[in-house]
Amino acid sequence: MAKEPAPKVQTIDPAALEVLKRAEEMGYSTAFSRAAKTPACPIGETGACCQLCNMGPCRLVATKANPDPVGVCGATRATVAARNMARHIAAGTASHSDHGRDLIFTLEAVGKGEAQGYELRDIPKLYAVAGYFGIKTDGKKPEQIAVEIAQKAIADMAGQKGEITYVKRAPKKRQEIWRQLGIVPRGIDREVVDILHRTHMGDDQDAEHILLGSLRTALADGWGGSMMATDISDILFGTPAPLRTRVNIGVLKDDEVNIVVHGHEPTLSEMIVRVVNEPELIEYAKSKGAKGINLCGVCCTSNETLMRQGIPSAGNDLNQELTIITGAVEAMIVDVQCVMQALQDLATKFHTKLITTSPKVKITGATHIEFDEHHALDIARQIVRIAIDNYPNRPRQQVQIPSHLSDLVAGFSHEYIRYMLGGTLRGSFRPLNDAIMTGRLRGVAGVVGCNNPRVTQDEAHNYIVKEFLKNDILVVQTGCGALANAKYGLLLGEAAMEYAGPGLREVCEAIGIPPILHLGSCVDNTRILTVLTQMASEGGLGDDISDIPGVGIAPEWMSEKALAIGAYFAASGAYVLFGVNSPISNSEEVEKIMSEGWEKIVGGKMEFVPDPQEIVRRSLAHIDAKRAALKLPAYDPTKFGKSGDWRMRELLKMPFPERVKALYGMPVAAE
């Protein structure tokens, strides 16, 4: 068998490196090796390719002979780049919002008593969400309220006129900006259809207008489908609270049945969490020679089960193939989004069963067991039995599981952040705002998004976050970005002592938190919107999201969902930076619209900056400019860091007489 070429760009993850070396020796293809031998299309990479009709595809690359090329229809580079970006945002919005739709249907089925194995686990959240939708709850059973919420949510999906409900959760100033611009979403499905229609050949040809429409589509995701998905997941499976678990490929076990869940929807994975702990199935696994059943995940299905039940994670998106190459995985169960087609071919080289479960997704050659929430437990048990039956087929000589793994603390919902800052009766974001206002915290940052094998796995995530921590910026993370830094111990309380600046370290010590807060899966970026809204409402940091000293970063993005997320944050007033490459670099006009143009009309902007060092530089400059606009004191790290555990350690280093003098301001009395 011919060896796959060693990838030039790999990873900083030692577990991934170990498995990649094995893949190379065995001649097996991975995303890393395919990226190395399949160069990115230089035309499409910059947004210079138009494929919207059969007069093309048209490549709009400037040359000396043709410095300002246009398509056959006359479409300019700006129009083409804007259309491509808008369609990416529409696809990302459709993906996350369809995730929300499935959860809405599950909630309705639970309310009607038709969903096997599910229950309403967070009743206070149920009542809170009912309040958002204006549903009266007096005298009603929770199940009836659940059905009414589902019906209202479906109406927002299908709305044709008016405004989606959750827009009212944004700061009032922000709502007025959207209304003045005419970009408040009318209905989630309508906005996706609208942008696909206007970007059809011969329709909208003004780049600025196309991109304004894309903001409305993105808002339908952030303040609609995704936000509803987060809320309904909390109602059905519980609102996350901090817990400690483990991450990286080393979570696989060589003497147990290994089941890996992968994708994004929590409906089936939550049932699998339940059935793998059933005594009957554990005994069945033992009858096949295993010591038990080990459930773990990759990507965002992993984040869903990790943050609620503490199920270990085998890592982020680019670890999906690597878990199979260990030879220890009996079954990988996938639903939707970010699932590589290469998995099935790779699974045939080992004993792994790849099982697709969504009615939307099939992979040629994989086993398909369609999920139905009405028979959820039965289907989950069927899948787990298939995995157990496959355990005796595991070739022992093929198994090589890296030992690398790390602990992490996850599960920081916006409800828990409010509680941890103020307590049960006085939950508040005031301490966080005060820390920024005094300069103890320089600002806040959301570092989110995917992995991309065209850059070194985890490297940009790790570098940017460490720089932020050093500069006293509190970081929140979701999705694969959270798992990236969890692998290196950054999502632990101890990380504050090693990596945080003096002010951030004091905040972490006082509250008892890691310097990075894991807020969940990629759909849970809406928790960040809620946190920012509550910070704006608390006072002292302006009255809108655009006033807050903060940034959003997607260092290693690859998904259209990431573009939709970036666009709804920009539309909400945030400065958002993307790494890797710029899909709009062929048009300076579009770059200017999405940066300077959007900043003028919505207060936020979106920029593509491949260099992580430049991302950090621009981020810090933006945060400092926002501090100055609020007339807050300039960031000065020398003012803080002499209290808490740090102070006690310094005192303990002193000889006893000096320690007493430092503590009490007087020398020790003479004996």
Structure description:
There is one protein chain. The protein is built from 26 helices and 16 strands. The chain is of the alpha/beta class and 671 residues long. It folds into 3 domains: 77-237, Substrate Binding Domain Of Dnak, Chain:A, Domain 2, CATH 1.20.1270.30; 249-398, 3-Layer(aba) Sandwich (Rossmann fold), CATH 3.40.50.2030; 408-638, 3-Layer(aba) Sandwich (Rossmann fold), CATH 3.40.50. The protein is globular. It is 48% helix and 10% strand. The termini are far apart. Helix 4 packs across helix 5 (142-158), helix 4 (123-132) runs antiparallel to helix 8 (207-237) and helix 8 (207-237) packs across helix 21 (525-538).
- How does the helix and strand content classify structurally? alpha/beta
Domain count? 3
Inertia-based shape: globular
**CATH class of the largest domain, anyone?**
Alpha Beta
- CATH fold category name of the largest domain: Rossmann fold
Tally of strands = 16
Strand content: 5-15%
Report low-confidence residues grouped into runs of 5 or more. Answer: none
Give the tags:
single chain, 671 residues, alpha/beta, Substrate Binding Domain Of Dnak, Chain:A, Domain 2, Rossmann fold, 3 domains, six-stranded parallel sheet, 26 helices
